Amino acid sequence: MSVAPNAVCSCGKPWQRTACRKRRPREGLSRSCEGQSVNERQPPGFTPPHAGLGEGREPSGPLTLGVRLPFVRALGSEARVHGEKARGGPQSSEHWEGLAQSAYECEDFATAERCMRRAFELGDGDATMYYNLGQILYALGDYGGAAEAYGRSLPEVKSALVNRGLCWELTGFFDRARIDYMAALRDDPNDVDALVNLGTLELSGGDVAAARDLLSRATALDETCHWQLADVHEEAGELRMAVQSLRRAIAAGEDRARPQYVRLRRRLRLQRRTQAWTRRARS
What we know:
Layout: H1 93-105, H2 109-122, H3 127-139, H4 143-153, H5 160-170, H6 174-187, H7 192-204, H8 208-221, H9 226-235, H10 239-251, H11 258-282
Helix pairs in contact: 1-2, 2-3, 3-4, 4-5, 5-6, 6-7, 7-8, 7-9, 8-9, 9-10, 10-11
């Protein structure tokens, strides 16, 4: 999949193959067709190798696959699953899924992709396998391929909507991202990740009121989301409220809010001094 022409990241900066720092991807591999992820936050079915998925990849951060058989953390770049841990021999799709899981846990995503594609060659892929392939391709930075794989896991794996939406953003297709986030919220109005991603997307498009509503709903469910809500206050010129939101996010354990907190406190102090000097000058 190509990147949308003249695309910019929804944070307002020229598009690049890195996630906006405040987006919330769902991490982990799905364990079943019901779409439950390893950490409960966030496909078996997949196309044969060389079917158009997995092109144009660049490095990205790690994620976690949802696999249906036990795995062991492999040592080194070559992932291995002990014979007693895997179901079936080397010619079974389950065996190769197990290898993909081990490689993924070792952050050897290229090996994980090769193993998962081999699993598709040996058996009919289901929704969970497609979702897991999407997670691997996302980790490899192939957001177009990941979006396609996530799409093939739907509607069985509901969690795929948020991750596909994020992939659409990263490739510049913001309208498609909005559609997926809104669909996720129709399924679950309290989906914090969808609220955060849609809220930050709306803010980047200039809809401060919509962003405020969505991110306020997110903070009612997760205090760390005050980190994102602070951007709404800053955009609206509400520096004091932005600092208060960042303080609450830090207290809830969101340490990534600290640099912005320090920066806005300095701006707020400077603003207050300027206002004081202006009052003195007028008097």
